[in-house]
Amino acid sequence: MTLLVVPLAVVWLGAAVLALLDGRRRLVGWLAVGILAVNVFSLVALGVRVSEDGRQELVTGNWPSGVGITLAADELGVLFAVLSSAVLLVALLYEVLGGVRTRTFPALVLFMAAGLTGLFLTGDLFNFFVFFELSMIPAYVLAVYGGERRQIGAAFIFAVVNLLGSFIFLISVAATYHVTGTLDMGTAAERLAGAEPASVMLIAVGVFVAFGVKLGLFPFHFWLPPIYVGATPAVAAILSGALANIGAYGLLRFGAVLLPAELELGARALVVIGVVSILYGALQALSRRDVREVLAYSAIGQAGYILVALAVGGRVGFFAAVVYAVVNSANKALLFLAAGLRGWLVGAAFVVGAFSVAGVPPSAGFFGKVAVFQAGVAEESIALLVLLFVGGALSFVYMFQIYQHAFWRPEAAVGDVSPPVLRGLTLGLAAVVVAIGIWPEPLLALSGGAADLLAGASRGGGP
Amino acid sequence: MILLFSGVVAVLFGTGAFLMLKADLFRVVVGMVMISNAAILTLIGSGLSRGAAPIHPLPDERISDPLVQAMALTAIVIGFGVTALLLAIAYRVYTSHESVDLDELSREEVRREQELEREEISP
Q1: In A54-124, alpha helices (H)
Q2: Could you tell me how far CA A47 lies from the centroid of its own chain?
Q3: In chain A, which among 145-184 make CB contacts under 8 A with chain B?
Q4: CB–CB of A126 and B71 under 8 A?
Q5: Which residue is closest to A159 within chain B, CA to CA?
Q6: What is the pTM of this model?
């Protein structure tokens, strides 16, 4: 039980203390790294416990169940929590090694870690919203971090669009409470299954819009490219590798567990939106020359794969969505970090990320692509398979086009060589991506557990 | 009562959305505030009930739902913090661009893009 509280409490208290200290000092930076490392390791321990003993639950304040606020950890939540915190840890390490530029940076990263950990481990709808905001607000501030002049305008639009998404989500939470009379996710799922379909559909649309904005899906993506292009490498890695997980997790949790009937009803529309996202992202990425711009549009395209897999549904679809979300966030973190560096072996790290996005074995991306294709086969739609293939082929083309453009041209080699520690860190992350590809068992087992859980919930009408 | 709430919420949300489409940053912030208040009113409206305060409820007494009040309070605090943050970012935009007009900012952006393209054609 303490395992549920430790990861959350450590980062939360740590963030509150570090907010008072000057983050530019090395000691404070390393303290933040240490706190975040404790968070990651306790989450891993929690993950091991969950995969052995099943779902862990804790009702705060010793209230009877149904009255108090629940913290709950299952395979899905733990997987996303470990992933997001690990990406945050790498990005924070990158920034501390390279020199933090503002006093608030370490504290903000810790606040975001607290928000994300809480969001993935909560079993309560309203707390989900609170943690959601707790992780978004540091993102609005970080978006301005170390940026140029024009970055501030992009950050404003980022904040406004995402706030609109948050408030639409809040309205959906209120509507869920009105319809079901509870905020507990498990109970709400049971009661939503028997509620009036018209009002539940409205809730489903609100939830989809809110998480679509977070994930940067096609019609909601306009805020995304300017913010990713202007941000520093560490911040871009945080936004695309950790924060975007909220969107994927939210769609999975709400779509498959709380609103399974509506997910099935809207499956066709979701497939269309997903495919349009894939093609739009790939074609836009193909036409760009700036590395970070290509990666930003690629992020829109990759989000489309997650949505398509989710819409296919069933165990195979949910499995694909989980694996793809995990692999994609590792890829994006690696690529954004590598894109900010220059020097020997940086190209190698970048090319590993590029291989992974394109789905070439032995990188982690291979298993993501395989899982999505399995979902496409399960859907028995040739058009979908062809479109998935075209999307994959396009990603291969744009990743290597930009690799050539960024690393092979003689003009690209100018500029200072980055410090060896940063290159080493990025190379280490690349090694992790390859390691997942060579030994995917832990990832596949956890994702399989999460998919079983989601498929069971959506078939039974409630967990 | 629910009808009244939903009417007010609709007007607030509509006005907020209209203001958010304006080019002036401060109007956008005010629009955001109105939308956040629409969401808070929806929260209160989702659990409308008449009755005594549920401090020590008697078995045969009607009580009002305290949960929505607690949620609304939390949402108000979040909305307040977010508004302060948005105003701060808007101020940063003003100090660095000397303008709070989004059209102006995007014109500047287009100019920059064109310069970049020109550099690429003739390096």
Answers
A1: 75-98, 105-121
A2: 18
A3: 149-150, 152-153, 155-157, 159-160, 163-164, 167-168, 170-171, 173-175, 177-178, 183
A4: yes
A5: B86
A6: 0.92
When pLDDT is averaged across residues A149-174 and rounded to a whole number, the result is 89
Do B88 and B11 touch, CB atoms closer than 8 A?
no
Mean pLDDT over A331-354 rounds to 88
Smallest CA-to-CA distance from A352 within A372, A327, A321, A324 is with A327
Give chain B's length: 123
Q: Show the tokens assigned to A283.
A: 């074609």
Mind listing the pLDDT tens digit for each residue in A8-43? 889 999 999 998 988 888 899 999 999 999 999 999
Q: Compute φ and ψ for A184, nearest 5 degrees.
A: -75, 130
Mutate to test the interface with B, among A128, A145, A171, A411 (most CBs of B within 10 A): A171
- Taking CB atoms within 8 Å and a gap of at least 24, the contacts of B116-119 are none
pLDDT of residue A313: 84
Residues of A in contact with B47 (CB under 8 A): 177-178
Q: Is the pLDDT of residue B60 over 90?
A: no
Quick one: pLDDT band at residue A159, thresholds 50, 70, 90? very high
ipTM score for this prediction: 0.91
Residues 57-86 of B with CB under 8 A from A: 67-68, 71, 74-75, 78, 81-82, 85-86
Residue (of A237, A84, A239) closest to A158 by Cα position: A239
Q: What is the pLDDT of residue A37?
A: 94
Give the pLDDT of residue A461: 40
What sign for the dihedral angle of Cα A294, A300, A302, A305? negative
Would the CB atoms of B123 and A126 count as touching at under 8 Å? no
Nearest CA in chain A to B71: A126
Residue of A136 and A229 predicted with greater confidence: A136
pLDDT at A300 over 50: yes
Q: How confident is the model at residue A1 (pLDDT cuts 50, 70, 90)?
A: low
Closest to A79 measured CA to CA, from A457, A448, A337 = A448
Whether A396 contacts chain B with CB within 8 A = no
Residues 6+ apart with CB under 8 A from A114: A8, A11, A12, A15, A134, A135
**3-state SS class at A362:** coil
> Which has more confidence, B96 or A207?
A207
Cβ neighbours of B68 in A, within 8 Å: 177
Please write down the long-range contacts of B30-36, taking CB distance under 8 Å and 24 or more positions apart.
Answer: B32/A160, B32/A163, B32/A164, B32/B82, B32/B83, B32/B86, B33/B79, B33/B83, B35/A164, B35/A167, B36/A163, B36/A167, B36/B75, B36/B79, B36/B82, B36/B83
